[in-house]
Design goal:
Elements: H1 14-22, H2 27-37, E1 40-41, H3 42-49, H4 54-66, E2 70-75, E3 81-86, H5 88-92, H6 94-107
Antiparallel strand pairs: 1-3, 2-3
């Protein structure tokens, strides 16, 4: 049976929800970094992402934490130490990120 696009609402799809969590220039890269290297400190993440402003990285990390995809662990010491890692919900997204990576490897132009 053919679906009727007139009655469809993209915002109600799982695809829309997933994109809302990982959309943007840096969120997928932050998640990939944590998937490969967790736990990661703020400065390590900044070096990994190269030319990202402190404020931009900080706001992306806060959004990912608010959405339940990453965990922020603060160590009470001087100087302060903060590490980021994937939450259980974030780890459940790894299968999706792995498939994106596989697709990129399979379809990347040969050099």
């Amino acid at each position: 049976m053919k679906k009727n696009i007139e009655e469809a609402d993209f915002n109600e799809t799982g695809y829309s929800y997933t994109l809302s969590l990982i959309s943007g220039k840096y969120k997928p890269i932050i998640l990939y970094c944590l998937m490969e290297y967790e736990p990661v400190r703020f400065n390590e993440m900044q070096r990994y992402l190269k030319n990202i402003a402190d404020k931009t990285l900080s706001s992306n990390l806060k959004e990912l934490e608010k959405d339940g995809l990453i965990l922020r662990k603060v160590y009470e010491q001087i100087p302060p130490k903060v590490e980021y890692s994937l939450s259980e919900k974030g780890h459940s997204l790894v299968k999706v990120l792995d498939r994106l990576c596989d697709w990129g490897i399979e379809n990347r132009p040969k050099q």
